[in-house]
Amino acid sequence: MSKPIKTKVFKSGNSLAVRLPKSLGAVEGTEMLVRETQGTYVFEPLPPTKKTIDLTGIAGSIPWLKLLTPEDREFEDRELDWTGKRLEGG
Fold first, then answer.
1. Is 59 within 8 Å of 48 (Cβ atoms)?
2. What molecular function does GO assign, one term (predicted)?
3. Is residue 17 a contact partner of residue 9, using CB atoms and an 8 Å limit?
């Protein structure tokens, strides 16, 4: 357990806030779980959440975009150059 650090509660917009010193190792943007038990406040960092992109609203805005069928996903076989050298004429 580390040495206690004194800090003040201050107003931030319509909320109250507590500044956490950098020495505690908190990272900006980390979500915290705060609970109060008999006048004692406990702050715990939450594990990072996996970010996903929600594309549900986009599909209706571009009606010309169609889902690929399995037949559209088939490619003809071709030899690939994996050496990293450029092909002649390219």
1. no
2. DNA binding
3. yes
- Over residues 18-33, mean pLDDT: 88
Q: Give CA–CA dist 7/26, Å, rounded.
A: 15
E strands, the chain, are 9-12, 15-18, 32-37, 40-45
Using left for φ > 0, alpha for ψ between -120 and 50, and beta otherwise, residue 57 falls in alpha
Measured CA to CA, the distance from residue 69 to residue 74 in angstroms comes to 9
Structure confidence by residue, pLDDT tens digits, 34-83: 999 999 998 899 988 888 887 777 767 777 777 788 888 777 888 887 88
Tokens of 24: 């505690």
